[in-house]
Structures are given as C-alpha cells and as structure tokens.
Amino acid sequence: MWHDLGVALALLLVLEGILPFLNPEGMRRMMLSIAQQNNRALRISGLVSMIMGVVLLYVVN
C-alpha cells in the first residue's frame, strides 16, 4: 500500500511540474488569476476536482 501511495505522489509531482517547466509565464498568469477568485469559486473548483478524482479512481479500479 505504501508503495502505491508513493508512486501516486511521485506522479502527482511530475504532472504538476509540467506546466511551470514548459510555460512559466503562463503559470504565473494562471496563479494571479486564481488568487483573484473569491472563496466560493475556489471551493467549487476544488469540489469538482475531488469528484473527478474519485470518479477516475472508480473507473480505473
């Protein structure tokens, strides 16, 4: 189990590193845009992301 969790965390770090590596200016603009959103919009996007992750885990398993 710990091995799978480690692999998942490593893949998460690789995927999150792609955008700043390929387009650092675009990443900077995106982060500024996110910082200007209100809390409700951030919560909704977080909820949608979690739901998509759970659905993807269900489909994969």
Percent of residues in beta strands? under 5%
**Overall spatial form:** flat
The protein's oligomeric status is single chain
Whole-number average pLDDT?
Answer: 94
Task: Output the helix-strand order.
Answer: HHH
Q: Fraction of residues in helices?
A: over 70%
How far is it from the N-terminal to the C-terminal residue, by CA?
15 Å
Largest sheet entry = none
Low-confidence runs (pLDDT<50, min 5 residues)? none
How large is the count of helical segments? 3
Roughly how many Å is the radius of gyration? 15 Å
Q: Look at the helices and sheets and give the structural class.
A: mainly alpha
Would you report the number of β strands?
0
In short:
This protein is an all-alpha fold and 61 residues long.
Describe this structure in words.
90% of the residues lie in helices and 0% in strands. With 61 residues, the chain is mostly helical. The protein has a domain at 24-61. Helix 1 (2-22) packs across helix 2 (24-35).
Features:
mainly alpha, flat
Topology:
Blueprint: H1 2-22, H2 24-35, H3 39-60
